[in-house]
Design brief:
By secondary structure, this protein is mainly β. The chain is built from two helices and seven strands, in the order βαββββββα. Helix 1 links the parallel strand 1 and strand 2. The C terminus is likely disordered.
Amino acid sequence: MIRKDGVAVRLQLEYARDQSALRAGLMWRKSLAQRNGMLFDFSNSIIVRMWMKNTYIPLDMLFVTEGGRIIQIERNLSPHSLSSIISIEPVRYVVEINGDEARQLGLNIGDMLFINGDYFFKDDN
C-alpha cells in the first residue's frame, strides 16, 4: 500500500479469488501475524457484503476500488458478529488485516493498493 504521504506499507496477503476462498476468508483462524491478511478479489466491482461469522480474531476491512484506491475502512470488527458490513459503493477488492492494524500503520481513505509493487489497476478517478 502507498499512503497519501508517500510512505509504502508492505503487507503479506493471501489471495482469495475463487468462490471457496471468497466464502471462507479468514474464518476459523485463531491468529494472524502482524502485517499479514487476505486480499479478496471479486473479479469486478460490486457492492460487497462481509461479516465476521466464525472469525475468531478482530479484523480491519479495507474496501478498495478497481483502481486500487481505499474508499472505506471498517476498523476493529468484533469476532463472531453476524452484522453485515456493506461497502458504501461498488468495490473490486477487500483487504482484511488484524484489528486496529490500519490505524497502527497509518492507513486511511484515499491510500492506494499495489500488488507485488506493480500498479496494474484501471484509473478510477
